[in-house]
Design goal:
The chain is α/β, with parallel strands linked by helices and about 325 residues long. It has ten helices and 14 strands. It has helices at about 1-15, 60-70, 95-105, 120-125, 130-140, 150-160, 190-200, 255-275, 285-290, 300-310, and strands at about 25-35, 40-45, 55-60, 70, 75-80, 85-90, 110-115, 165-170, 175-180, 185-190, 205-215, 215-230, 235-245, 315-320. Strands 1, 2, 3, 4, 5, 6, 7, 8, 9 and 10 form a ten-stranded mixed β-sheet that branches. Helix 3 (about 95-105) crosses helix 6 (about 150-160) and helix 9 (about 285-290) packs across helix 10. The mean pLDDT is about 90.
């Protein structure tokens, strides 16, 4: 009897306190995919309590596709445990973002973008743990991806300064992080520039990198990373601090030099790209705006901030202390 009661409690918790007699009538969704294919919307839904089977629904409009998806295999579709949404890059726009904002009460699910047929992606990876473990691993190892929720995407879309962006993934034999997708510009930023933006925004504090010096490879750990940005007298001063270690060498002089050059080049490349393509994921413009935020002409002041950014002098200082890392996990 005790086991039965415990099982019932677990089920209630798992399914958002749905009444027990309704559990068998629900199709619980945890992963969703959306794309355009031959002019039609295609929705992919992973149903947890149907052995993680993926159902595909097609329609001429978002409204039609989600109306068709209200019931799957004679069960009411249940979205309260939605954790991952993968958008094809051909479908992300303000219309879709606003639709999702109105359609779902919770907006804390993670979002990813994919530049390919989602059917092929879901044939290999369609469970929430596939994506959550991948993001955690890539963030810790390469620093090229972080958790981005639909709430983050919506907030950035509404922000006059920020350019909304979504982690961009690819799949071969494994899932890989290949950068960021900027929906408003239909533009892709590579993984190195994505990591530079996360570093400047203090979204990552550690990652590892492999360097090649004198015909040898070295695994390098960077940790306790912090960034600061200051703007004054048409000058941008960017400072990166942290610690560096390598299990493959006791002499880090050449390794440190190469790593610092890599960080410097990535930040500079990101800044140049932002100026040329006119986007903002580094948030550098915000520091310029706040420095002169007493202006009453907000629109004019925003334009002035972009102009100041474009014409500013850039100074990047990278300070990495050589210190043995105690734990490599």
């Amino acid at each position: 009897m005790r086991k039965i009661i415990l099982l019932g409690i677990v089920l209630l918790l798992f399914l958002g306190f749905a009444p027990y007699h309704e559990l068998n009538n629900l199709g619980v969704i945890d992963v969703m995919g959306l794309e355009m294919n031959n002019g039609k919307y295609v929705l992919y839904l992973n149903v947890i309590n149907d052995k993680n089977k993926v159902y595909t629904i097609t329609g001429d409009s978002l409204g039609e596709v989600f109306l068709k998806a209200k019931n799957i295999n004679n069960k009411k579709t249940y979205y309260n445990h939605l954790e991952i949404v993968v958008f094809n890059t051909n479908v992300i726009n303000k219309k879709v973002i606003n639709f999702f904002k109105d359609e779902f009460t919770s907006i804390d699910y993670l979002v990813l973008s994919y530049d390919g047929n989602i059917s092929n992606l879901f044939n290999m990876y369609h469970k929430r743990n596939d994506y959550k473990s991948f993001i955690k691993k890539e963030k810790n190892e390469t620093g090229s991806i972080i958790n981005v929720t639909f709430k983050d995407l919506l907030s950035d879309t509404l922000d006059e300064f920020k350019t909304a962006n979504i982690p961009l993934i690819n799949v071969d034999n494994n899932l890989t992080s290949i950068g960021l997708y900027l929906p408003s510009l239909n533009y892709k930023v590579d993984a190195n520039l994505a990591r530079a933006s996360y570093l400047l925004n203090n979204k990552i504090s550690s990652y590892s990198e492999k360097v090649f010096i004198n015909n040898n490879y070295y695994e390098v750990f960077l940790y306790n990373l912090k960034s600061s940005i200051k703007y004054n007298n048409k000058s941008l001063n960017i400072k990166i601090t942290g610690k560096i270690d390598s299990p493959d060498s006791d002499n880090l002089t050449d390794i440190e030099k190469q790593i610092k050059n890599s960080i410097y080049n990535d930040i500079y490349s990101l800044i140049d790209d932002e100026k040329i393509k006119k986007y903002n994921i580094s948030n550098i413009i915000n520091y310029i705006y706040l420095k002169n935020s007493d202006s009453k002409d907000k629109k004019g002041h925003i334009d002035s901030a972009f102009s100041s950014y474009k014409n500013s002098n850039i100074y990047i200082d990278i300070n990495l202390d050589k210190e043995r890392k105690n734990n490599y996990d």
